[in-house]
Amino acid sequence: MALTQERRLVTPIPGPASQALMARKQAAVPTGVATTLPVFAAEASGGIVKDVDGNQLIDLGSGIAVTTVGVSAPRVVEAVAAQAAAYTHTCFMVTPYEPYVAVAEALNRLTPGDHDKRTALFNSGAEAVENAVKIARAATGRQAVVVFDHAYHGRTNLTMAMTAKSMPYKHGFGPFSPEVYRAPMSYPFRDGVKDGRVAAARAIDVIEKQVGAANLAAVVIEPIQGEGGFVVPAEGFLAAIAQWCTDNDVVFVADEVQSGFGRTGAMYACEHEGVVPDLVVTAKGVADGLPLSAVTGRAALMDAAHASGLGGTYGGNPLACAAALATIETLEADGLVARAGEIETLMLDRLHRLAADDRRVGDVRGRGAMIAVELVDDSGEPDAALAKALAASCHAAGVIVLTCGTWGNVLRFLPPLTISDDLLHEALDVLTTALKEA
Ligand code: PLZ
Asked: 53 partner at 20 to 30 Å CA-CA among 216, 325, 361, 436?
């Protein structure tokens, strides 16, 4: 790897070079575009991000679950460079090219289920979610969309409506797209319902009474919620919702933007529950940082949209497709999906021990390299201040961690699958110290 895989602080965080860049940012970039850390990146590889002052930070964020195969993975760098030299763009809607088709073939193979599938490519997660809704509406002739409490689906107008949390994602940005309805999520730590079928019955009752299956085009759900708090629904919840969709000719859409592509120790998180979605949305980890997203699904549904009904100038850009093919090769050749399982074992073991010693760690959850702790106060109420303080201590000590959750009280860990055990342990040592001192 290009950088020595070690945490090293040579200045306080942020150092002078980062501070100077932050001043330029403030003068050039609007306040709305905020940053988690006040440091600017200069270089990154493996589990390390090096900043412009020469500090080396342990990366437990992967750019929000994007650089799953390791930032600037060697095969990706090589493939993108070769593609850039051949052609950067022709527009697939004008003169198509083979890498797009190869990515579609790969996603048809890698997504759950062995039915006949088609894949359409886009740029961002939100754009792909929107297209999944368009396809479901075209296929069913219905308009309503059901999403869940704590959901996050993006920042475009339709996906803002689908996202649950007002601040910061929606506040002041309405009016929002109509025909979006919200059902109760299964959130075992908060709702106490450990039987997923019971939680599903509660959601289905809301859907049937407040929307009506005959009006409903799609149910869109994150198999493990991301921004909403790494909420893993109770076992059986996803399967029961999916079965209800099948029984009522409603399109079941899995938003696997954050949970997909090897992140959770399976190619897609819904595989842990044996669920086969009608449509799967992929983004983030699919192309190691190049903007690429996809909707993959049953051929009959995908073909419901009329010719030229789907597209976009950059969708399936050749550089992003080359990156995706190299990402897939890396995941498969290097056994990284299995590595996510090892990371889960290591992290859950350490974090469960932390929780046993400290009541403020109310819940430890997640799968693979998508793991979180939910922090609570003495009465079990969400403790956002503690999450914020812990994140700040980790950042100051050179560990990149992110927060999430409806109440902002969840610390989440999304390391690249190429990170070493040593770096993971060191990062967890930093967290343990931070908790003791908080
Ligand atoms: N669906 C499940 O996690 C993106 C958003 C960060 P885009 N999550 C990170 C932020 O604050 O903007 C996400 C997701 C799920 C959809 C999206 C949207 O993906 O590529 O950010 O549009």
From this structure: 436
Ligand 1 atom with minimal separation from the 124 CA:
20
pLDDT of 2 reads: 86
Q: How far is ligand 1, taken at its centre, from the CA of residue 294, in Å?
A: 13
The pLDDT assigned to 360 comes to 98
Q: Name the nearest CA neighbour of 150 among 417, 382, 397, 401.
A: 382
**Substitution site in 133, 153, 224, 412 for ligand 1 pocket (most atoms within 8 Å of beta carbon):** 153
Give the E-state strand segments of 36-78 in sequence order. 41-45, 48-51, 56-59
At residue 167, does pLDDT exceed 80? yes
Whole-angstrom distance, CA of residue 253 vs CA of residue 382:
30
Index of the ligand 1 atom closest to the CA of residue 283: 20
Burial of residue 100, with CB atoms counted within 10 A of its CB: 0-12 exposed, 13-18 middle, 19 or more buried: buried
The domains found in the chain, sorted by start residue, are: 16-72+335-437 (3.90.1150.10), 74-333 (3.40.640.10)
Q: How far is residue 146's CA from residue 216's CA, in Å, rounded to a whole number?
A: 8
* pLDDT band, residue 423 (cuts 50/70/90): very high
> Hey, what are 151's tokens?
């959901």
Per-residue model confidence (pLDDT) at position 1: 76
Report the alpha-carbon distance of residue 368 to residue 345 in Å, rounded: 8
CA-CA distance, 248 to 214, in Å (whole number)?
A: 8
Read off the pLDDT band of 14 (50, 70, 90): very high
Q: Edge to edge, what strands does the sheet with 410-413 contain?
A: 361-367, 370-375, 410-413, 402-404
CA of 147 to the centre of ligand 1 (A): 15
